[in-house]
Specification:
Shape: globular
Low-confidence stretches: none
Radius of gyration: 19 Å
Helix content: over 70%
Largest sheet: none
Number of helices: 13
Mean pLDDT: 89
């Protein structure tokens, strides 16, 4: 990271905190608030109901400023910048539509599950086709054919958007995990400047949001924020030069989405539950862990899991 990039990162961090504060006040005026699902933990209805949401709208604004500055300072990598940022911005718009429908209907239901799934495919598939056309090497020795690469990228992208979304269920959990993931990305070192710049933007955006989202949260990121972060982490990992590292950088998010999948399979196939409630952080809430305990311990698990999977990937693939 250059001095210029660090200075820009600090400015974006301050901008994010200030804009989030303004947006928080604006939301209270407009009554843009969280409508919680009735089948979630009952304690959430009392503690979190009515909290302003859609904090991810600010992410898009901060990212636009970051992109503009990147276009100015990294003129030789403008095409790569477009390739990186097209997914998070498009995914963020899908999340925004979902959040706006919830706000408009004054309900916890936005897009239908099927509608959201097809919308996610609609933004992930074109991006995946474009990336796959570059004959991407997923890891040393494995360079899949165009169609297989596009299918794998689409599957991973859609899955990752949903993985980040289900992780965003406790104060600071997803934002803090994003800070850890983007920090891990920036430590890779041997990446294009455009990737480092995008990772830096993601890091300071997550940090700035965590200022307001830490327990007790004053605002939630909403689907727009979760989709944006999921898309950005996916695209930066893919263009880091070693796409397989998305497994390491998304460790906690993968654990959370796998817990949901396993719970659904167990209920539908065997009429039994593996967890008291999924995703996994809700299970530990019902076990009796406090919210701050779960968040802190899940951050530790995420950091350790990232390190362990990185070592294993290095051993087997590099």
């Amino acid at each position: 990271m250059t001095i210029t990039a660090i200075a820009v990162g600090v400015c974006l961090l301050v901008l994010n905190v200030v804009m989030q504060e303004w947006w928080l006040k604006k939301q209270k005026t407009l009554r843009i608030e969280q409508f919680l699902k009735l089948y979630g933990p009952q304690g959430h209805l009392e503690r979190k109901g009515g909290t302003p949401t859609m904090g991810g709208v600010v992410f898009l604004g901060v990212a636009i400023v970051g992109c503009f500055l990147a276009f100015c300072f990294l003129s030789s990598e403008r095409r790569l910048l477009v390739e990186i940022w097209s997914l998070p911005f498009a995914a963020g718009l899908v999340g925004f539509v979902d959040d706006w429908l919830k706000f408009s209907h004054r309900s916890s239901e936005g897009l239908s599950s099927r509608g959201k799934f097809f919308a996610q495919i609609a933004v992930c598939l074109p991006w995946s086709l474009f990336v796959a056309a570059q004959n991407l090497e997923f890891f040393p020795g494995f360079r899949p054919e165009f169609l297989l690469a596009a299918m794998l990228l689409t599957f991973a992208s859609v899955g990752f958007l949903n993985a980040f979304n289900v992780t965003d269920g406790l104060d600071g959990l997803a934002a803090g995990a994003a800070v850890i993931s983007f920090t891990g990305l920036l430590t890779l070192g041997d990446v294009e400047k455009a990737v480092s710049w995008a990772g830096m933007t993601g890091l300071v955006t997550a940090l700035g949001f965590l200022w307001h989202n830490a327990h007790p949260a004053k605002i939630f990121m909403g689907d727009v924020g979760a989709h944006f972060f999921g898309g950005l982490l996916m695209s930066t990992a893919i263009f880091s030069g070693t796409p397989i590292l998305v497994v390491s950088l998304s460790f906690l998010f993968l654990v959370e989405i796998i817990s949901v999948i396993l719970q659904i399979l167990a209920i539908r196939g065997f009429r039994r539950r593996i967890f008291l409630m999924s995703p996994l952080h809700h299970h530990f809430e019902l076990v009796g862990w406090s919210e701050t305990q779960i968040v802190a311990r899940f951050w530790i698990v995420h950091a350790c899991g990232m390190l362990a999977t990185f070592v294993l990937l290095k051993f087997f693939f590099f």
